[in-house]
Amino acid sequence: GNSVTQMEGPVTLSEEAFLTINCTYTATGYPSLFWYVQYPGEGLQLLLKATKADDKGSNKGFEATYRKETTSFHLEKGSVQVSDSAVYFCALSATGGFKTIFGAGTRLFVKA
Amino acid sequence: EADIYQTPRYLVIGTGKKITLECSQTMGHDKMYWYQQDPGMELHLIHYSYGVNSTEKGDLSSESTVSRIRTEHFPLTLESARPSHTSQYLCASTPQGISYNEQFFGPGTRLTVL
Fold it and tell me: What's the gap in Å between the CA of B105 and the closest CA on chain A?
């Protein structure tokens, strides 16, 4: 079945450091891939998405590239801020599918 | 901006009480979902709906029930709450007509059963 594996946290960085959160997936066909973010006390919100191989999703300085050859969708940001402290979820959805498969989440702490 | 609402945001109740968690969306989305989020953050799908009068059980067995009488409304009910039901409950919806199933989430209800 489809699954998502993401880097365990917590990840602790200093402000302006480079961020990478690894995500790999298992799926048949060509799923769509997502990163969602959850700030304290809130629900999840979509951060970025990619719907086909080699697509790069980007938003708020975050980027992720859909790599079919390595079945990966790693999240990166060049310079994190304290306000980026949150939980990040990698997710996939099969084309035409109904359910979204979420990774276990990675908590990020950014220190000033 | 997504418009999906959950009430109450926080609820503390005693064992054995019947509770209903409300979820409403004003976007006209057909697909709606309930997730249970454990303290380790992982999300578990407990119910979903394709549209009015459609409800399905999710991947995680739950003692809760849901109904979908109106497109915009997808309440979740626990007939007799127990401490094991203590969790964060997240409601979500997805617009029809797109292939990639982007989900819009409400703010969540944090339930504590004493």
Answer: 6
- Identify the residue whose tokens are 């989305």: B29
Burial of A97 (0-12, 13-18, 19+ CB in 10 A): middle
- Decide if B55 touches A, using CB distance below 8 A: no
Q: Which of A7, A77, A26 is nearest to A47 (CA)?
A: A77
Taking only the tens place, the pLDDT of each residue in A5-52 is 999 999 999 999 999 999 999 998 889 999 999 999 899 999 999 999
Could you tell me which of B40, B10, B27, B33 has the C-alpha nearest to residue B90? B33
- Examine the pLDDT at B45 and tell me if it is beyond 70: yes
Structure-token match 């690894």, residue found: A22
Sequence-distant (≥ 6) Cβ neighbours of residue A101 within 8 angstroms: A2, A3, A4, A91, A92, A93
Q: Is the pLDDT of residue B2 over 70?
A: no
* pLDDT single digits (tens) A49-95: 999 999 999 999 999 999 999 999 999 999 999 999 999 999 999 87
Task: Note the Cα B33 to chain centre separation in Å.
Answer: 6
Residue type, position B46, single letter: I
Chain A partners within 8 Å of B91 (Cβ): 43
Q: Give φ, ψ of A32 to 5 degrees.
A: -90, 145
With an 8 Å Cβ cutoff, is A59 touching chain B? Answer: no
Per-residue tokens: A54: 């080699």
Alpha-carbon span B73 to B29, nearest angstrom: 10
Nearest 5°: phi and psi at A84?
A: -85, -5
